[in-house]
Design a protein that fits this description.
Largest sheet: 7 strands, parallel
Structural class: alpha/beta
Distance between the termini: 39 Å
Number of domains: 1
Strand content: 5-15%
CATH class: Alpha Beta
CATH superfamily: NAD(P)-binding Rossmann-like Domain
Helix content: 40-55%
Oligomer: single chain
Number of helices: 9
Order of helices and strands: EHEHEHEHEHEHHEHH
Number of strands: 7
């Protein structure tokens, strides 16, 4: 997709982090942007930022873990701007804690947002793209969609599933000569607010109360992990850098988009374990590796 002017984009998780930066970047390219998020105040703020800069955007509160909410998002997009040319299924939440300790509502929430949010987004917006014979879908996975580590069972599961789902989607789009491009975004550590995502957990996923604290990295030996992790995340790659990469990936019809080479050696080591049919080597918690600068 070379010419963005007048195209229509939907960005979920668009009120903060990578989503917000991508919404702003697309608007600067002349795209009409539908910004979707579960939080109203920051959603209003990003729409105001875009329109103040001369762009065109609307904000829609949406819960991507709920099909009716995503389908309503599609209908609002159609009504406001027309069918979406670009869809970025980006909304995501952290899912920390060991597999043995995380309660089912937390699993349902993490998979509901990180995985079902992607499935629902594709199910809602892909039909119009297929009918038109053009469009581009960006699904946000993670380096955690290519690695495993302790204390991240729900998150790892969701992101591995997104990677597999998105690669399958790309194969089907090519096999059908559909004209629809697909990008699988696999960020490393980016200065986003994901470590505080617990604030947005809906009541229906809180049976028995929250089962993990914000920033919980159970399985590591990190002291004072909550504040330390928040500080560490704040020092990572800026979201606008990732947004520029996303825009370029759409332009180039690029499938895999890794934001940096932080995880390259670890991914190679994991692939070597798989190819050898051997027992996986022990690996440190990914967040712990961030503090060490990537050394396992």
């Amino acid at each position: 997709m070379q010419d963005f002017t007048g195209k229509v984009a939907v960005v979920t998780g668009g009120a903060s982090g990578i989503g917000r930066a991508t919404a702003v970047a697309l608007a600067a390219e002349g795209v009409l942007v539908v910004v979707a998020d579960i939080e109203q105040p920051p959603l209003d703020a990003v729409v105001e930022e875009i329109t103040a800069a001369g762009g065109d955007a609307i904000g829609i509160v949406a819960d991507v873990s709920d099909w009716e909410s995503v389908d309503a998002l599609r209908a609002r997009c159609d009504e406001a701007f027309g069918a979406a040319d670009i869809v970025m299924n980006n909304a995501g939440v952290a899912g920390g804690g060991s597999i043995s300790s995380v309660e089912l509502p937390a699993w349902e929430w993490t998979l509901g947002v990180n995985l079902w949010g992607v499935i629902y987004g594709v199910k809602a917006f892909l039909p119009a793209m297929l009918e038109r014979g053009s469009g581009h879908i960006v699904n946000t996975a993670s380096i955690a969609g290519h690695l495993t580590s302790t204390g991240m069972g729900a998150y790892n599961t969701s992101k591995h599933a997104v990677s597999g789902f998105t690669e399958t989607l790309q194969q089907e789009m090519v096999a059908g000569d559909t004209g629809v491009g697909v990008t699988c975004l696999c960020p490393g550590f980016v200065a986003t607010n994901i470590v505080n995502s617990e604030r947005n957990r809906p009541e229906r996923y809180r049976e028995g109360g929250p089962d993990l604290d914000e920033g919980d990295v159970e399985g590591t030996a990190l002291a004072d992990s909550g504040s330390a992790i928040a500080d560490a995340y704040a020092a990572q790659m800026k979201p606008d850098v990732v947004a520029a990469q996303v825009v370029q990936a759409i332009r180039d019809n690029r499938f895999w988009l890794f934001t940096d080479d932080f995880a390259d050696d670890m991914i190679r080591a994991r692939h070597a374990d798989i190819e050898s049919h051997g027992t996986p080597a022990s690996r440190s918690h990914l967040v712990e590796l961030m503090f060490r600068g990537g050394d396992q």
